[in-house]
Specification:
Elements (H helix, E strand, L loop, with lengths): L1 E2 L5 H11 L15 E6 L2 E7 L8 E6 L2 E8 L18 E9 L9 E5 L2 E7 L8 E4 L7 E4 L1
Antiparallel strand pairs: 1-6, 2-3, 3-8, 4-5, 5-6, 7-8, 9-10
InterPro entries: A-crystallin/Hsp20_dom, HSP20-like_chaperone, Small_HSP
Pfam family, one: HSP20
Family: Belongs to the small heat shock protein (HSP20) family.
Length: 147
Amino acid sequence: MLMRTDPFREFDRLAQQVFGSQTPGTWSRPTAMPMDAYRQGDQYVVSFDLPGVAPDAIELDVERNVLTVKAERRPLELGDDVEMQVAERPLGVFSRQLFLGDTLDAERIEARYDAGVLTLRIPIAERAKPRKISIASTDSDRKEINA
């Protein structure tokens, strides 16, 4: 099971609405990225929106049961003769942490980046899947029960 805990996320969202976007290089803390998460069969699928982020600017780290996704949207490389008229897209570092439950297999996470969406597939650990246990008895019959 995925667990999500970020007590400052709503505060950051409110502060950004009140004070507006910060200029590049002055981020006080990484900005959260939107995500969807759902279970599909024997795995969890997590998708992060990262439009405009180059694949080489994305880092995935797992330490103990914490998965960290960090991405950086860099400014466009414009020539000296270009005068920016409107700059509303946020730049800088975006970060998100997910706490992975013990039932997930963090060793076998698969990642794919396509059309600005990073999709992670996190399998459920074999030890967490339901299994049948056979019961030995003094009779010659053996019974199976679900565990």
